[in-house]
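sorry for the late reply, my laptop died twice this morning and i had to redo everyting from scratch. anyway the thing you sent over, i finally got around to it. pasting the sequence first so we're on the same page, its 275 residues, then the predicted structure underneath. double check i copied it right bc i was rushing
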Amino acid sequence: MELEAQLRERIKELDCLYRLTNLIEKYSGALDKILQETVELLPVSWQYPEITCARIRYQSQVFTSVNFKKTQWRQESPIIISGSVEGMIEVRYLKKMPDLDEGPFLKEERLLIDAVSSRIARAAERINTQKQLQLERQALQDANAAFHDALVQSQKEKKMLGLSIQSKVDKIISPIFYALQAASLPSQLEYLVLLKKNLDDIIAPFAEGDNKTLPTLSPVELQITNMIKHGFSTKEIAKVRGISPSTVNRHRESIRRKLGITNSKVNLVSYLSRP
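ok and here's the structure:
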């Protein structure tokens, strides 16, 4: 009979650990559910389940079996995580029972409560690590999103700055450049070309991608196109470049043909001003 009783106790202890393992797997991300169901699991695993109650304290949370009551007959095991006591598992008897190995408790019950505490600690550590990783992952995603928004805003600001710089160059510097070009001696033209190239190199990082590419136009047509785009009339272009208005008109016709808008009602200024 005694052997049968001992066997029943060992079966209850193994069943307790088995069911605890299932709880940890079932609620792999919810420690509070694991702890609440564990306090209901513990009493039936002790020698006198009808007078046994349990409580688990973990950090600021407390979980108790339905019949929990503070008594002097208790068995405890700390929940230790990374060397720090984070909680306590308690099993209590509601009335006095004969003394055995540890007060009224069996030595096997000491092994069982310590095993439960150890498994709870590992589960809590794993869940806490998962939550921390999720927080860090979310923080990284938020940082990436903020960086992307900042990058987009920076690109917008760069484009606006480029448009502003290009507009000022076209309206203020280019007319002066064309006037100098028209009035310069042949020996001075290479300096003007070098000046224009250096100016373009300075503007390029800001105005990159803002200018329409017109690869089919000649250098003279590109200059006249730029002047048309910024509101120069035929007479003004002729005066700046030192050519006749009829020559400017021929250039305008050539520009329209190369752009594919000959014999159409498309306004050349509006076409050249498109983004």
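The beta strands are 52-58, 61-64, 74-81, 84-93.
thats about all i looked at so far, will dig more tmrw
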